[in-house]
Give the backbone structure.
Amino acid sequence: MGWFPADFGLKDHTVFTYNNRYYLASIDTSDNTHFAYGVSDDLCTWTTLDPVLVQRPALPWSESIIWAPDVYTENGTYYMFYTSVEQTFTQRIALATSTNPADPTSWTVDTSFVLTPTHSGAVWRENTWADMRDPHVFRWDGLYYLLYTGRDADGGIIGLATASSITGPWQDFGSILTLPSGMPESPTMLQANGGFYLIYNRAGDGAASGEKFRFGPAPGGPWGEEHPLLPGGWAHEVWTGLDGGLYASYLTSYTVTIAPLTWNTRYSPPQPFVGAALHELFIPLVQR
């Protein structure tokens, strides 16, 4: 299962449903000024739609390209949080909305919305590379949570902001995970098995790089030991399908592969595994 276009590449992406169909929006590697957009009835065969956010209004900053869409749905409105990037690679979180996402032209940028890091110790300034990207939004216990990739003086971070309304105002609490080396990119959160799984791509860290997860009791942690998310890929998104099952979509090269997310129950808490079944080999000890 997945979307494997032949004439352009995909990167950070989001999958959501509307009118019993699946939609996927992604960075288009051939042109970072819009998002590639596709629709599917079965997660196997995808129809390429017109791209999303081709025409965008002027913003208070000079947006050049866009990255990493993430769609959150509530009361018939689809909220697409994304990374707005200036030519100098200064990054901010921006927002577009739609009530009819079957129409690619229906997405409208909210020109009043912007999110930049404001917590103590944040390393972010205008007119240079400044990390504030890869948003992921979810709701828990009556509060909205937004994860992002950022940077502090101590290293790359997954930051956390919260709000009582989906459109804010958002309060930035800063790091819930800091990597002294490398960068924790494309964060996502999964609530299961009595806690939360923080999933992220550990990038630029040599042999330690790869898709990882940690388990904790709350969205802000504290987080347990880091584990690899098997069998591979990067920039994973985890979501519920129309059949009620959990799925993971992730990058393999510059295409999106989709597979069921299952659990390895030999561990406590259970560890997520991307694939329909987990097979383990046991070799009995034979005494002579």
The CA atoms of residues 25 and 37 lie 5 Å apart.
